[in-house]
Specification:
Layout lengths: L4 H14 L4 H12 L10 E7 L2 E8 L1 E3 L4 E2 L6 E2 L5 H13 L25 H5 L8 H7 L11 H10 L15 H15 L3 H10 L8 E2 L14 E4 L2 E4 L12 E3 L1 H13 L4 H8 L18 E5 L2 E10 L2 E8 L4 E7 L6 H13 L16 H7 L1 E5 L5 E7 L2 E4 L4 E4 L4 E3 L5 E6 L5 E7 L5 E7 L6 H5 L3 E5 L4 E8 L2 E6 L3 E9 L2 E3 L5 E6 L5 E7 L6 E5 L1
Antiparallel strand pairs: 1-2, 1-13, 3-4, 5-9, 6-9, 7-8, 10-11, 11-12, 12-13, 14-15, 14-21, 15-16, 16-17, 17-18, 18-19, 19-20, 20-21, 22-23, 22-29, 23-24, 24-25, 25-26, 26-27, 27-28, 28-29
Helix pairs in contact: 2-11, 3-7, 3-8, 6-7
Length: 544
């Protein structure tokens, strides 16, 4: 009996409709949905995933070059930003294994250009970001040469470091992320090995692991076949945003998602360095007060939705990156983007959710309570960071306690509020019931103390007392403070000029949210100005 053409067509359609997508096809389709914002008219991202060292996903979305409509591929070479730090740390650990240095060596043994700060400053401190070294890029920005405005080299780094007469804090007492330490580590590798940092890592790490498309941006003018161009979003589309500098070790790694997965597999196989190196690379730093921090040797050891995670993010110019492993599940995810607006970490975590499935879970949030308006008002006010002096304004808005940015703190008791990032704000009260201090308990165990202060509204005469020319040898620059129409302005040649916003006594905010503090002598006369700029603290300028 013959079937009609229509009957056959209906049978084929019915069979196709009844067939279900395989688990792998379903996962890939969901990954496609995660990256759907990156199209044939935008820069994009490459993503890779591996299970127990075997690649199970390698895809790319968007364009490698907008001017020539070149598609991004998994083989596209993209700069990985600070993901590079784990390779720099590994190079140092290899030299320690070879007996050529010790992690407890004083840094000045290998970098004599570094000033003597009268404190023990070791290689280990730099690896864990507990050195207290000021971030050279921030100092360079104060000098008028922010990152991306000049072809910085390691000579510039050494020049800036040699001029710093103080540390942010005593080595080992705090964790504060600083690129300076990792640039100095790259220089130490070169000096101790007798080979360039790029050559040492190529022969000792990249080649043994088959990372054939990985190198360093030690010469930004070098032609790199297959390199994706970096872009940052603008109102009207995108602009080129390439890293035109030669500093590396802190960043500057040119690589692919598949090469990063090969590196991640080494943590299971131990081909480079063996188990001893891997243990040392995952050893978390410990502060002098005994607290263990999340940061290890170029890696952050933490938890993601209840699952153990080893990861690092990266951002350089218009590049964004995230590399993460879930060692208990044999899963690694790599995301590299040439789109400056791409949230690489968020994208990688969404992919990880697909592969981890039901093992990921968010802890139950503490139950919120309702507080009387008078109680909320007693928590509002102006606070200052006890270490950096940075102001924090807390107010009541629509019956909720919020900070300057509108982020809500949810009350779980009369004095404890939960933050969206998982941390908690704990208020300490004075006898009259008003808050005198607030401790921010971070998810990583760190605690930030904020003290209540009175807002400051200086009059014209007080502002005129701050006017003058201020000079810094550490930053090799001059800043002018001017008073005009009842306002205070900070000016720096050739074009920098912005208004200073009074926060509390002798402390003013600049548009970036950082602070300027004026220092007086015993007679009350202003003699110095101090800048607190995130990764640089208490950078002094003498009043002329």
């Amino acid at each position: 009996m013959r079937l009609s053409v229509v009957t056959i067509a209906l049978l084929v359609i019915s069979h196709a409709a009844g067939a279900q997508m395989s688990p792998r096809q379903d996962t890939v389709a969901r990954v496609d949905s995660i990256f759907s914002r990156f199209t044939t008219t935008t820069p994009g991202c490459a993503v890779g995933a591996s299970r127990h060292g075997r690649t199970v996903l390698a895809k790319a979305y968007g364009l490698s070059n907008l001017e020539y409509d070149v598609p991004l591929t998994p083989e596209s070479i993209i700069e990985a930003g600070s993901v590079a730090k784990q390779f720099t740390a590994a190079a140092v650990l290899l030299l320690a294994q070879q007996g050529k240095l010790s992690l407890d060596d004083q840094v000045r043994k290998h970098i004599p250009e570094l000033p003597d700060y009268g404190a023990s400053l070791t290689i280990r401190h730099m690896i864990n970001h507990t050195s207290g070294l000021r971030d050279w890029g921030t100092v360079a920005a104060v000098e008028g040469w922010p990152r991306g405005s000049r072809a910085h080299t390691h000579d510039h780094v050494l020049d800036i470091v040699a001029r710093q007469r103080a540390l942010n804090f005593p080595p080992g007492s705090e964790y504060l992320y600083s690129n300076t330490g990792y640039n100095l580590l790259a220089i130490i590798v070169q000096r101790v090995s007798g080979r360039s940092f790029a050559d040492f890592t190529r022969t000792e790490i990249f080649e043994p692991l088959g990372m054939t498309r990985t190198s360093w941006r030690d010469d930004y003018t070098r032609v790199v076949k297959g390199r994706a161009t970096a872009y940052s979003p603008t109102r009207n589309g995108f602009r080129l945003n390439m890293p035109f500098e030669n500093v590396h070790g802190n960043g500057g790694l040119l690589t692919t998602v598949e090469d990063l997965l090969r590196w991640s597999a080494n943590f299971d196989r131990g081909q480079v360095g063996g188990p001893a190196l891997l243990r040392e690379q995952l050893r978390q730093g410990r502060l002098t007060n005994g607290r263990e921090i999340e940061y290890a040797a170029g890696l952050s050891v933490s938890r993601y939705r209840g699952v153990a995670e080893v990861s690092h993010s990266g951002a350089t110019a218009g590049y964004r990156a995230f590399l993460t492993r879930y060692p208990e599940h044999g899963l690694a995810i790599a995301v590299l983007c040439n789109h400056g607006g791409a949230p690489a970490a968020t994208l990688a975590h969404r992919v990880a959710d697909l592969y981890l499935g039901s093992v990921v879970m968010d802890p139950a949030a503490p139950k919120a309570v309702t507080l009387a308006p008078s109680v909320l008002s007693a928590r509002a006010g102006l606070y200052r960071n006890a270490v950096t002096g940075q102001p924090l304004r807390i107010s009541v808005r629509d019956g909720k306690l919020v900070d300057d940015g509108g982020t809500e703190a949810v009350p779980i008791s009369a004095t404890v509020f939960r933050n969206p990032n998982g941390g908690q704000a704990v208020f300490e009260l004075s006898p009259d019931g008003r808050a005198r201090a607030m401790r921010l308990l971070q998810e990583d165990g760190d605690t930030l103390l904020f003290l209540a202060v009175e807002p400051y509204a200086p009059g014209p005469e007080e502002l005129r007392g701050l006017v003058g020319t201020y000079v810094s040898e550490e930053a090799a620059t001059t800043i002018t403070i001017a008073h005009q129409e009842g306002k205070l302005f900070l000016r720096q040649r050739p074009t920098v000029a912005f208004e200073l916003r009074a926060a509390y006594r002798d402390v003013f905010e600049i548009p970036t949210g950082d602070v300027v503090r004026f220092i007086r002598d015993d007679t009350g006369k202003v003699t110095e100005m101090s800048l607190f700029l995130g990764r640089v603290r208490d950078l002094r300028f003498k009043k002329q």
